[in-house]
């Protein structure tokens, strides 16, 4: 068995078509689900958790889409409300949605909660207090539950932090992005270095267990020196984890909408900043800074994200743009506010769109998630009760013929690097490929070689590599 040139060409074509959303199992190619169907999925997943047939880690994600301003680089599903009345309306809607599910989860405990956005710190203290009480009254949580809250340096203050600590928040994630006053002006983010340092020290004084800071490289007007100075400040302060990402001018960011250009020179500078970030953190902490979710200190990582990625845990998402995963039943999401044509009236939730899952689909998702880092066969067996190399014998044989996989005892190591985007397609289920081809198949030209196009689009796949997909 071999990967024919035709098949490889099809995988290149699909890699190009899925470029904006190359994340198995590709919800967009799915179907709409009713509330009853979603409840049915969860009933089965909860039973599997209780019967020890599904991972027992269970996350709760709550999306608060509001912000005081739209930052110019922002690609999140966030939105400046007309008035605070809209926020109250949205919170009422979230409570209603939680009400649909609380009974279904009465016999299991959530092991993580993530308040993301937007800016959850946009909520007024009194509303946040009420909302958190409502959540704690609706579900059960494990004693070691990681409670993550995203906040901005502008919104957070001593009173707000006291409130969050009282409610058990134990991982604060502060969206800083940059502390350079010129960059802050350019990106329209009203914050100061002094305020950030003040709230950070206050969090430390109160003994906040984990503090994560987000930074962005390649922002408008940012120099390598200013970015590096921000990274060093975080390390000097003793931040538990710095999550840095490179700016990418996606079409729906205000940056792109204003017709601004991100030149090749900007790209080069951004990449240099990210390299500097990797080097500084490695030298100072030994951490692999670019591996998403890796904390500098044990336990600092976002457990909800790592549980989902490394163990296929289940996740109940509440609110616009929230994503959910009911193990072996479905992956689904709510619509994004930014994708809705009209401003929402906040009476439409819940709306669900997604794809059905099965044990085999869970295994594919696991391999997809761990294609770059590799994984342990023992872990795979403990999650799915089967040996990965037996279930995917054909696929492993194929990759091994190409020299793309190395099985050393318990460890499966893939040698695919950035071209995992192409080789991951080998594992796709027939149904998933069929659904994607139903949408894109008409533009596929058998006689066209998609390698050149892919090379232009994803130069990193082909850079200094020979004989690859
Ligand atoms: S970057 Fe954060 S604070 Fe700024 S608009 Fe986006 S979600 Fe809101």
What descriptive keywords fit this protein?
binds iron/sulfur cluster; 19 helices; disordered C terminus; 7-stranded parallel β-sheet; about 475 residues; single chain; 4-stranded antiparallel β-sheet
Could you describe the 3D structure shown?
This protein folds into two domains: 1-22 and 358-458, no CATH class; 27-309, tm_1862 like domain (pyruvate-formate lyase- activating enzyme), CATH 3.80.30. The chain is built from 19 helices and 14 strands. It has helices at residues 5-17, 35-50, 84-101, 125-138, 158-166, 181-187, 193-205, 224-237, 254-257, 264-285, 303-311, 359-369, 377-384, 388-391, 393-401, 420-423, 430-440, 451-457, 459-462, and strands at residues 31-33, 58-64, 109-117, 140-151, 171-177, 210-217, 241-246, 314-318, 323-326, 330-333, 352-356, 375-376, 405-408, 411-414. Helix 4 links the parallel strand 3 and strand 4. The model is unreliable at 463-469 (pLDDT under 50). The structure holds iron/sulfur cluster.
Low-confidence stretches: 463-469
Roughly what fraction of the amino acids lie in strands?
15-25%
Number of helices: 19
Give the mean pLDDT.
88
Radius of gyration, in angstroms, nearest whole number: 23 Å
Largest sheet: 7 strands, parallel
Shape: globular
**Number of beta strands:** 14
**Hetero ligands:** iron/sulfur cluster
Task: Summarize the structure in short.
The chain is of the alpha/beta class and 469 residues long.
